[in-house]
Amino acid sequence: MAAGSIINGQVLDNSGVFSAHALRFGDGVITDLENKGAFELDATGLMVLPGIVDVHGDAFERQLMPRPGVRFPIEVALLETDRQLAANGITTAFHAVTWSWETGLRDRSIAEEMTRALRAPGAGLSVDTRFHLRHECHNLAAENEIIAWLNDGLIDVLSFNDHVEDCHADAGKPAKVQQYLDRTGLTRAAWDELLARITSQGPLVPASIERLAAAARKAGVVMMSHDDISPAHRDSFHALGIHVSEFPETEDTARRALAHDGAVVFGAPNVVRGRSHTTAPNATDMIAKGLCTVLASDYYYPALALAPFKLVERLGGDIGRYWPLVSTQAARALGLTDRGVLDVGQRADITLIDAHGGVPRVIATLVAGKIVYLADGARLKAA
Questions:
Q1: What are the tens digits of pLDDT across the range 82-125?
Q2: What is the CATH number of domain 51-339?
Q3: Which of 8, 36, 47, 213 is 20 to 30 Å from 358 at the Cα level?
Q4: From the CB of residue 22, how many other CB atoms can be counted at a distance below 10 Å?
Q5: What secondary structure, in 3-state letters, does the chain show?
């Protein structure tokens, strides 16, 4: 890999302090050695920040199915998503793919295609892109195959989701039901029949979760629980070695997760909008109370780069206080120790942002020292 350096910028160190110095890298990692004959990237007026790590993003679904029932090849969807990720400063992305008991967008085919496409030679992705499998716990038929995928190293993160009760709660909401019908391609009668059949399998779910968690522990795969509804719910997952709670539904549940020394994930869109799009806790409030350790893009990639700046506006402090939510702490929550800080020996995953006036803008993104996005070509110079 080409060696290079970033000059004239304000570099965020691992203590949360900015300083003006050159940041040099070679062979994909940050180095303290002088790089002769390398390129230089002029970061005058820019913040030089650790690359963003997205632990849960599912906005790629819009590239897969931009309209109900209209599918595009996964290779095309991944390439377009890759461009969006790079342009938003995201250097590591975990695509959160739901394998549900539903038909359509969230059936087995998408998950299987994702495992294949991400590992295909010549996939052409510039961002370090990984597979986060969202397992719907009532999808009992998938258990054996998921265990096989875990054993084969095809899954990077496994999360446990259960939206059956949500589906029942939405039964009297025509707009919500229509979303399910559009996503699955089913009639209302067929959807009601499917939901009733899946619900009847409820007594078998806890044992299935235990078996899957055991397989993930054996494979060394990080696990998450999704939408934990209560402290007791979080306790049950913690007992299985599932230490990351994403989008807990109450403040007490988030507190319980932290009491177990686990990570707590909320959505960056929640911060940017100032509220959840559901009835979930306000993420800014959770951060103010010390109850959130990681932010995820969830359904909107631009939110990750914007959220730390919104937090400065609302809570005070500076970017050095909040940027770890989308970098250092996100990486550590998923067991990644080679990125998330701008230290010697760490991956040269770097995001450059112009925070002057209006909306903060990503100017450049580097993945393992390679420029994968550059909004201002005049800043690039041969050394």
A1: 999 999 999 999 999 999 999 887 889 889 999 999 988 878 99
A2: 3.20.20.140
A3: 8
A4: 15
A5: CCCEEEECCEEECCCCCEEECCEEEECCEEECCCCCCCEEEECCCCEEEECEEEEEECCCHHHHCCECCECCCHHHHHHHHHHHHHHCCEEEEEEEEEECCCCHHHCHHHHHHHHHHHCCCCCCCCCEEEEEEEEECCCHHHHHHHHHHHHCCCCCEEEEECCHHHHHHCCCCHHHHHHHHHHHCCCHHHHHHHHHHHHCCHHHHHHHHHHHHHHHHHHCCEEEEECCCCHHHHHHHHCCCCCEEECCCCHHHHHHHHHCCCEEEEEHHHHHHCCCCCCCCCHHHHHHCCCCCEEECECCCCHHHHHHHHHHHHHCCCHHHHHHHHCHHHHHHCCCCCCCCCCCCCECCEEEEECCCCCCEEEEEEECCEEEEECCHHHEEEC
Other beta carbons within 10 angstroms of residue 379's beta carbon come to 22
Q: What residues does CATH 2.30.40.10 cover in the chain?
A: 4-47+359-382
Q: How far is CA 228 from CA 47, 237, 251, 282, in A?
A: 36, 9, 11, 15
For the chain, residues classed under CATH 3.20.20.140 are: 51-339
Give residue 14's pLDDT: 87
Low-confidence ranges of the chain (pLDDT < 70): 1-2, 35-37, 383
CATH class of 4-47+359-382: mainly beta
Q: How many CB atoms lie within 10 A of CB 181?
A: 16
Q: What is the mean pLDDT of the chain?
A: 94
Distance CA 85, CA 60 (A): 10
Q: Which two tokens stand for residue 129?
A: 């892109």
How many Å apart are CA 247 and CA 306, to the nearest integer? 19
Q: Which residues pair with 160 in a beta bridge?
A: 135, 225
Its pTM surpasses 0.90: yes
* Predicted local distance difference test score (pLDDT) of residue 1: 60
pLDDT number for residue 35: 66
